[in-house]
Specification:
Layout lengths: L7 E4 L8 E3 L6 E4 L13 E4 L10 E6 L9 E4 L5 E2 L5 E4 L5 E6 L4 E4 L2
Length: 115
């Protein structure tokens, strides 16, 4: 890893406060806080767009409800293009507080849940 690589990404009131996030080339673990802004969160539901599976064979991504608030403000993981996610879905939801999804790309058109 070089000094410009970013493995850990925070989505919260002070670092990335938008209600939509597109995963970057250097993201691996994304910690999301959807709590109200006074509690450090973004204060709304969050949509996260996965990268294209075809360009990322073997890539592993972890998306975590770090604010333990996704039962109130859901976190949605959504595909790009014609990709599919675990079982043929176009999106997955995090709805249980402190839950996470660990996904791996098959290098073609699928993201599989592996944890």
């Amino acid at each position: 890893m070089n000094s410009t690589s970013r493995i850990l990404t925070f989505i919260d009131v002070s670092r990335n406060s938008s209600s939509h996030y597109i995963i970057n080339e250097d993201d691996e673990v994304i910690l999301c806080n959807t709590r109200p802004r006074p509690e450090g969160g973004i204060g709304s539901p969050l949509a996260i767009t996965l990268p294209r599976a075809k360009r990322h064979e073997g890539r592993v991504l972890v998306i975590k409800d770090a604010g333990a608030y996704c039962a109130v403000n859901n976190i949605t993981l959504q595909r790009q293009g014609g990709d599919l996610i675990e079982g043929g879905n176009t999106h997955l939801l995090l709805t249980q507080p402190s839950s996470f999804k660990k996904l791996i790309s098959d290098g073609d058109s699928w993201w599989y849940e592996i944890g």
